[in-house]
């Protein structure tokens, strides 16, 4: 039995959909905080079980009989590590034979703002003794949906990434990698650095938006502090602005790209191109 946590989230839904193409619905557990949101999966034969990262008892019940567990990382800053540790404990107590975890690129060395919780989670999983796979995901192109919409309205977008490049691809590519790890063989003990085959910079993104939409779009590169002030002035909370500026620093320093080729090897095809990804976002 394969348990997917966070199964009603944007990535989790794609993973469950991918699993449904490879295994019987009854072999899939959609572990979710609100089972009502997973009603569609239940009607298709998927087992839907309540699993709240903050309620260890619910995790124990949700993981009963689990052979494999996919821990999709929590999105709650400040609570993420404790939540992950609860999932790890529940998986171990359930006797799961494999725990896969969605981490971040180069979690053990990157300076990205979000990295410490991922690094600590990886360490906790290693210490648990559970056979593991770390899916170190890069950025999603969907992260730029609002940027693209704003650029189409104004003719430009700003950032502080310089000439840096990132290997962002759609969530569907990362979901396909998770499905392979959960249904394939030989992934235990592996650490996969997952990113697009062809890294791109923000100038490339602007050019692609222009080509796809027919609307001229340019990229304006700013010093980091000016970028932060611009974001705050646009109404973003300070912590969010700081995270976005840090992400651009990471892009500038090469922390959000990888030449590993792990993603395309896992999914058995080239990763989705920037043109395809932007087309999907422009056309909605």
UniProtKB/TrEMBL annotation:
Coiled coil: none annotated. Residues 6-183 form the NAD(P)-binding domain. The lineage of its organism: Bacteria, Bacillati, Actinomycetota, Actinomycetes, Pseudonocardiales. Keywords: Oxidoreductase. Its EC number is 1.6.5.2. This is NAD(P)H dehydrogenase (Quinone) 2 (EC). Transmembrane segments: none annotated. It comes from Amycolatopsis camponoti. InterPro entries: NAD(P)-bd_dom, NAD(P)-bd_dom_sf, NmrA-type_oxidoreductase. Pfam families: NAD_binding_10. The keyword Oxidoreductase applies. GO terms for molecular function: NAD(P)H dehydrogenase (quinone) activity.
């Amino acid at each position: 039995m394969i348990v997917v946590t966070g199964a009603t989230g944007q990535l989790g839904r794609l993973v469950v959909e991918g699993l449904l193409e490879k295994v019987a619905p009854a072999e899939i557990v959609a572990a979710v905080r609100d089972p009502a949101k997973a009603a569609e999966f239940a009607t298709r034969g998927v087992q839907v079980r309540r699993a709240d990262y903050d309620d260890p008892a619910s995790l124990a019940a949700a993981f009963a009989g689990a052979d494999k567990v996919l821990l999709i990382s929590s999105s709650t800053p400040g609570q993420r590590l404790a939540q992950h540790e609860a999932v790890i404990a529940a998986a171990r107590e359930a006797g799961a034979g494999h725990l896969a975890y969605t981490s971040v690129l180069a979690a053990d060395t990157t300076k990205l703002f979000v990295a410490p919780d991922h690094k600590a989670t990886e360490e906790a999983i290693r210490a648990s003794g559970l056979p593991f796979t770390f899916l170190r995901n890069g950025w999603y192109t969907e992260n730029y949906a609002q940027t693209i919409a704003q650029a189409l309205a104004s003719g430009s977008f700003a950032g502080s990434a310089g000439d840096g490049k990132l290997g962002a691809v759609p969530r569907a590519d990362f979901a396909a990698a998770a499905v392979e790890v959960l249904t394939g063989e030989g992934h235990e003990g592996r650490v996969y650095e997952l990113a697009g085959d062809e890294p791109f910079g923000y100038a490339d993104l602007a050019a692609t938006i222009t080509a796809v939409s027919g609307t001229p779009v340019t990229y304006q590169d700013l010093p980091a502090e000016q970028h932060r002030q611009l974001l705050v002035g646009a109404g973003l909370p300070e912590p969010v602005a700081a995270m976005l500026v840090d992400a651009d620093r990471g892009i500038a320093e090469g922390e959000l790209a990888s030449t590993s080729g792990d993603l395309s090897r896992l999914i058995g095809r080239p990763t989705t191109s920037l043109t395809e990804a932007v087309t999907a976002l422009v056309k909605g």
